[in-house]
Amino acid sequence: MAMDTYTPDGIVHYTTVDLVRRPVPPLIRLVQYDDTLPVLAVDIQNDGADYFLSGSELVNIRYKKADKTVVYNPALGSDETGHTLYFEITQQMTAAYGDCYATIEIARDITDVVYTSQIKFIVDRNPVQEDDIESTGEFKTFIEYAAETREAAEEAKEYAENILDQMEEALSTFVTWQIVSLLPSTGEAGVIYLVPSSDPGINNIKDEYIWVLQSDGVSYGWEKIGSTDSALGGVDTYPTPDSTSVVSSGGLYDWFSGYPWTWDDLRYGRFNYSLTNLTVVSNPTRTSYTAGDMLDLAGLKVRVYNSARNIYLDYTNICTYSPANGSTLTGNTDNVTVTYDTGDDVLTTTVSLTLDRLITVDATNATTEYEIGDTFDISGLLVSVYDTDTQATESIDLQDCTFNVEDGETIDENTPTTISVEYDGLTGYYDITVSE
Question: Pairing state of beta strands 346-352 and 335-341?
């Protein structure tokens, strides 16, 4: 549905995303259980230049919470120019505390869909937990689509609502495919039955059926939804993986796993997949830095192996990076950690960097466990700087360092648990715990 012009009032969080580049946008901080319905304002850019929507596009936000549940909601509208999009930050978006990620989906039609760079949210934990607020999936876009269907075909209201319910159930549990020689007398929801066609042809054609409630609203029956001229899983249509093949993926987006599916994946049921072997295919163009430079990951390509499709897929724009692209290198690490969370497992790999100097903070013999009211103590810390050119390590006097918590300061509930140690343009870190 086309967007309306929208003017926000109340609390507004601003950020910028890009359709081509993958910049690090401003961090959006929220508080768990926030029910004030603040608004997210998103400026859209295309390769660094302002981008203006025509108003006919379908725009949604895909938001993955820290507990893996998902929000998929439409935009409230845009400003008069079509450059800034507005989204409601619903209570469900703040129901689970932790790191959350979102992307903006812009569709000109069902086959022409683009996704922006990621937006990172941090939902701070509410000290008063509310058991009656359960974190669940939220899909307002589906509800709006269902409303349009009912307006266009009121006489098929009950039938359309039932189909929508079955689609939601199938999406929440994932669709499964089952090969049968003949259709059984009854079927199961969320299952597509593949029956040999009367004319199977050279590629084992199978007709596709689902078991659905009929238009009378009472009886169930079989509905043919199509046929397929390929082996189940479609593996034969993709190259065998080797050390160089990387296939870019796009099309239908599976918001549950953060994985971009193609329409063939939906058609052939490639949902029961596993992702392994997160690998760096090509390093960034720049890998040598001076402490204080900004990290530039241009040229980096990473892939994962998808078992269902039997290929390697380009996941460069889906993985997360630490330090993040564009962040300042403070000399506390000489590599970039690449991470992808599959939902069942966390895949990681690293990209090696060369820095002119590296700072190391050794807190082995320092106090790292505190209670509120204790005094912060830096004694026992060992700070050293390694010079890459001379390969010499220099021990640093603690009095020459700057800490984000002063030595002798009283620990309270606002004391940061990550302690930064700065010296001559370098910054190292170590963690402490604070208990009551």
Answer: antiparallel
Q: What is the mean pLDDT of residues 7-32?
A: 85
* CB-CB neighbours of 112 under 10 Å: 9
Q: Are residues 89 and 65 in the same domain?
A: yes
Q: What is the pTM of this model?
A: 0.39
Q: 126-142 burial, b if ≥16 CB within 10 A, otherwise e?
A: eeeeeeebebebbbbbb
- Residue found by looking up tokens 């939220």 in the block: 138
**Percent of the chain beyond pLDDT 90?**
29
- Contact criterion met (CB below 8 Å) for 143 and 74: no
Closest by CA position to 184, among listed 199, 174, 173, 194? 194
- What is the structure's pLDDT at 257? 37
Domain count, the chain: 4
100, HSE (Cβ side, Cα atoms, 13 Å): 30
From the DSSP assignment, how many helices (H) and strands (E) are in the chain?
3, 33
Per-position b or e across 145-183, b if 16+ CB within 10 A of its CB:
bbeebbeeeeeeeebbebbbebbeebbeeeeebeeeeee
- Domain around 283: 240-258+271-354
User: Does a structural domain hold residue 146?
Assistant: no
For the stretch 121-134, pLDDT in tens is: 999 888 877 766 66
Question: How far is residue 180's CA from residue 196's CA, in Å, rounded to a whole number?
Answer: 8
141-189 residue pLDDT tens? 655 655 555 555 565 556 656 665 655 554 444 456 677 778 888 888 7
Residue partners of 39: CB distance under 8 A and separation at least 6: 8, 10, 11, 12, 13, 76, 86, 87, 88, 89
Mapping DSSP to helix (H, G, I), strand (E, B) and coil, where does residue 409 land? coil
